[in-house]
Each structure stands twice: as C-alpha cells, then as structure tokens.
Design brief:
The chain is an alpha+beta fold. It is 19% helix and 34% strand.
Length: 194
C-alpha cells in the first residue's frame, strides 16, 4: 500500500429508538477513517496521481472495514458515502484527488454493486473538527429514505500535513422514514437513479 497511514478508526452507530418509538431492526451506520500523511503538504504539485492511487487503495480498505464492522454480507449494504478533510498544509484539491477519480470502484466491490454515484464532501480543517460523510442509497439515488449523513471526528486529526479520509456504509436507511419517494423494494438499481 502506498498510503502512509498513521491510524485507522472504525465505529458503528446503531439507532434503536427514535421519537419515542422502537426501531426494529435497528438502523446501523458504520464509518471507517484513515489518517494518512499528505505527500504534497506545503507545496504545489501539478500531478496528483499519487493521491488518486491512494484513493483507490483506501476505497477498498475502508469499504471492507465498514462491511465487516456491520457484520453483514457485501450485498446487504444499502447506502454509502465518502469524505475527506485536509490539514492546513494541504489543498482542497488533495481531498478531491483521493475521493473522485478512483476511490469509488473498489468501494463498489466492497458493497457488491453500487450503481449510484457515491455522495461526497471535502473540507479543510484541523484536529477535532467534525467531518460529515453524506450517505445515499448505493444503487438508486432517488431512494429518499437513505438521504442521510454520519459525522466523524478524531481528536488528533488531521494534523497540518495529513488527510483524514472516511468511508461510510449502512445496512438500512434513516429511522422512521416518511417523506415519500422511491422505496428500497421498488428500486431497480440499473441506472443509479431508480
């Protein structure tokens, strides 16, 4: 692996009650975060292919960690998302290089398909700042019950010369969804939209 990883953190959020109602089965979201050294911190680099390749490595690694944390088969994953926060010596474009060109394909392998675009966010920040990872249904973007997010923060990341990269996977949508739209059962997952 070409990524210089300082640490990996994996967590699962499980909602069992919402608005005074039991959620059965509970809705669950997993998020896996890698804190990596930014090879281009503090300097301009025209060719960002090294970060693009790191993104490909992390998409599979973090996606598999999420599926494993949920204790599900890959095809039981329902939604996904990705996000990155660069430390102060980096550029927003460094986060984009990790997230966009190649991270999605190995993530789709980890969750068995993934016809829809992977929702993403990127920002610049420092240790302890929150990073929101947007979520959407992996095969049909119009499934509103899966429009969601999970927040992650690490007290010591990202440092100035680091990038915090997060991938989230769920086995369900929001608890108690009721805003209409396409349902999971109705979704075909052929075009990434419906």
């Amino acid at each position: 692996m070409s990524a210089d990883i300082r640490k990996i953190s994996v967590s699962v959020e499980e909602t069992r009650h919402e608005a005074g109602r039991a959620i059965a089965p509970a809705t669950r979201k997993a998020v896996a975060v890698a804190v990596i050294r930014n090879p281009f911190a503090g300097r301009y680099q025209e060719d960002l292919s090294e970060l693009i390749e790191i993104g490909a490595e992390l998409g599979g690694l973090l996606g598999h960690k999420c599926v494993e944390a949920l204790g599900i088969a890959a095809d039981a994953a329902q939604s996904y998302g990705k996000a990155a926060m660069v430390g102060e010596d980096g550029e927003l474009e460094h986060a984009a290089a990790i997230l966009h060109p190649k991270l999605g394909a190995p993530l789709r392998v980890a969750v068995d398909k993934g016809a829809a675009l992977v929702p993403s966010s990127k920002k610049m920040g420092g240790p302890g700042q929150p990073l929101d990872v947007p979520l959407g249904h992996k095969d049909a973007a119009y499934v509103r019950s899966h429009f969601d997010a999970i927040e992650v923060r690490l007290n010591d990341a990202p440092r100035a010369g680091e990038i915090m990269v997060a991938v989230a996977v769920t086995d369900s949508g929001r608890p108690l969804p009721r805003v209409g739209g396409l349902t999971v059962v109705e979704a075909k997952g052929e075009d990434g939209l419906r």
